[in-house]
Design brief:
It contains 10 helices and 5 strands. It folds into 3 domains: about 55 residues, no CATH class; about 70 residues, lambda repressor-like DNA-binding domains (434 Repressor (Amino-terminal Domain)), CATH 1.10.260; about 45 residues, no CATH class. It has about 190 residues and is of the alpha+beta class.
């Protein structure tokens, strides 16, 4: 007796997992994704199991995210893990509901543009992540890397570009909330401008 599922078409053969690369298009972007299906060894019928359909949907959503310039599920997961958060803590910090991060990371849904922007800003400016964590009552595993990256020259100078008028004094103190200020050391301040 075989452990393979019986073909729902002929009820005699067994289904064997197969895959193929297919051409897809979204928002003017073309690409290829892996499409999963099963083939009967008796009648040759092709069908997709529930798990294969779920995986095919996830592959298409991941492609759409990439085509739309959104953070992919794998990148959302990597970011969450780099902050030392579980999915529940990330949802409390960033919002989206109790199972939002499971859905984002598995490419079950496309995160909203505002959520995507919040994630991008938090990744680019780690002090935002630290602030959101504190506001949500979530303890990050390691705060020191957030403070260190906040004080790095690259984040400040690239954010300024060539327009320096009126920003010198605003760089002196970066207000995170009414009660929390983070001062750029003089050396960092001088290199930033």
């Amino acid at each position: 007796m075989s452990d393979l599922p019986v073909c729902p078409i002929c009820d005699e053969g067994h289904l064997h997992a197969r895959s193929e690369m297919i051409e897809v298009e979204h928002a003017g972007h073309a690409g290829q994704i892996e499409s999963l299906y099963s083939e009967c060894d008796e009648c040759g019928s092709e069908t997709a199991t529930a798990a294969q359909m779920r995986d095919n949907k996830r592959a298409m959503i991941a492609f759409k995210k990439q085509a739309d310039g959104l953070i992919t599920g794998a990148d959302v997961k990597a970011m969450r893990q780099s902050l030392g958060l579980n999915q529940d803590q990330a949802a409390r910090m960033f919002g989206g509901g109790p199972v939002a991060f499971s859905k984002y990371e598995n490419d079950d849904v496309v995160q909203s543009e505002p959520m995507n922007n919040l994630l991008k800003v938090s990744k680019r400016f780690p002090m935002v992540a630290a602030y959101l964590a504190r506001e949500a009552g979530v303890e990050l595993k390691d705060h020191s890397h957030l403070v260190a990256s906040f004080q790095s020259r690259s984040y400040v100078s690239s954010a300024l570009g060539s327009n320096l008028s009126g920003v010198r004094e605003s760089l002196r103190l970066v207000a995170v909330s009414n009660s929390d200020c983070f001062e750029l050391p003089d050396e960092e301040y001088q290199h930033a401008i």
